[in-house]
Amino acid sequence: MKKFFCYGLLALFLMACSSLPTHEVEGRITAHETNKVMVETYWRLIGRLSMRNDRESWFTSVEWRHNQAEDYLILSTTLGGVVAKLRYASGVIVLLEPDKVERIISEQELESLLGYSPPIQHLKFWVRGIPSPMLSVQFDMAPVGVRRFLQDGWRVNLERFGAFDDGSLPGKMSISKAQVKIKIVVDQWLG
Q1: What is the model's pLDDT at position 28?
Q2: Cα distance between residue 186 and residue 45, in whole Å
Q3: Among 147, 170, 139, 140, residue whose Cα is nearest residue 27
Q4: In CATH, which superfamily holds the domain spanning 2-186?
Q5: Around Cβ 46, how many Cβ atoms within 10 Å?
Q6: What are the φ/ψ torsions at residue 123 (nearest 5 degrees)?
Q7: Spatial contact of 62 and 5, defined as CB atoms under 8 Å apart
Q8: Would you state the pLDDT for residue 9?
Q9: Distance between CA atoms of 101 and 65, rounded to whole angstroms?
């Protein structure tokens, strides 16, 4: 169960179709776009997440709630059963398992469960279509409507951008590093 939850957390970024209307974005992000994303203190994402590595793969539904204090993720089966809940704030990861047991886990423990180190502190930026301000970034050439960049060895591919609160957010995200591939498809952005 713990392993499934952890994979769900990391897979939090692989999905197929999205119902969001799309529009074109440039490969590079402007300062204006970055500022618009950074000032959003509360947002919610509802979608699907998948993860695959050289040993296994899995698929889950995800609800991600972000506020200034923490990120809260609910991972569920396609039938609606909750697999796990996770809170991340100030470098602390709290796991609430289906049996209602809540415990703090370290990034090292999460890495040990998953077999790789997930980019937890950067995902909240990537999923909103911008590079993490904590890392250097290298942009890749991409077709119109797609944004690609590399940070900390993770290749981030963002597409299906849709209008949201005077800005644009991706409807599909793929992240990969070595044998790990994570995809998220956003069904709905809420503010």
Answers
A1: 58
A2: 7
A3: 147
A4: Lipoprotein localisation LolA/LolB/LppX (2.50.20.10)
A5: 15
A6: -60, -35
A7: no
A8: 44
A9: 20
Element (H, E) at 43: strand 43-52
- CA dihedral in degrees (60, 162, 142, 54; nearest 10)? 0
DSSP-derived letter for residue 53 is -
Residue type at 117?
S
| DSSP reduced 3-state for 4 | helix
Span 124-180, pLDDT tens digits: 999 999 999 999 999 988 888 899 999 999 999 999 988 777 778 899 999 999 999
For residue 3, report the phi and psi dihedrals to the nearest 5 degrees.
-65, -45
The torsion defined by the Cα of 122, 127, 128 and 130, in degrees rounded to 10, comes to 50
- Whole-number Å distance between alpha carbons of 118 and 179: 12
Is residue 14 pLDDT above 60, yes or no?
A: no
Residue 88's beta-bridge partner residues? 71, 93
Q: What is the DSSP letter of 27?
A: S
Q: Which tokens hold the place of 139?
A: 């942009």
- Mean pLDDT value of segment 14-24: 42
Burial class (CB in 10 A: 0-12, 13-18, 19+), 121: middle
**Domain regions of the chain by residue span:** 2-186
Residue 75 sits at φ, ψ, to 5 deg, of -105, 130
Distance CA 29, CA 84 (A): 34
Mean per-residue pLDDT for 54-62? Answer: 87
Q: pTM (2 decimals)?
A: 0.80
